[in-house]
Amino acid sequence: MSSPYGDLHDDRKELPRPGLIKAALTRRITSRQGAQALHLTIRQFQCLKRRFREGGAAALRAQIATWVTTVYSGLRDVHLTEKLRERQGLDICRESIRRCGCLSER
């Protein structure tokens, strides 16, 4: 069964979900509801909304790629996903990190 909010990739466990962010941007849901659904703080969700508004899902992927190559450079996929979850509030799967191509440079 597919989520009504859509996914960044095909993996249903992966966050953030652009459809949920779009729903918040069109005021069908509140930032509080979106944050709760994604297990984020309201402030983190608002930051995701701003990034998505500025450039869509590609902007979110670019932000993750930037973190991978700067702040978290040198980390492998398992440790990287843990840090993104702990510090950025992003619950993204290891396979998605591999697919974005950021780890191939190492």
Structure description:
The chain is mainly α. The protein has one domain (18-100). It contains five helices and no strands. It has helices spanning 18-25, 31-38, 42-69, 77-88, 94-99. α1 crosses α3 and α2 (31-38) crosses α3. The longest helix is centred in the middle third of the chain and has 28 residues, at 42-69. The N and C termini lie far apart (36 Å).
Q: Note the gap between the termini.
A: 36 Å
Secondary-structure content class: mainly alpha
Q: How many domain modules?
A: 1
Provide the succession of SSEs: HHHHH
Number of extended strands: 0
Radius of gyration: 13 Å
* Helix proportion range: 55-70%
For the sheet with most strands, the description reads:
none
Question: Low-confidence parts, pLDDT < 50 over ≥5 residues?
Answer: 1-16
Give the amount of beta strand, in percent.
Answer: under 5%
Return the average pLDDT rounded to an integer: 75
SS element count, helices:
5
The backbone outline, from C-alpha atoms, is globular
Can you tag this structure with a few keywords?
single chain, 106 residues, mainly alpha, 5 helices, 0% strand, globular, disordered N terminus
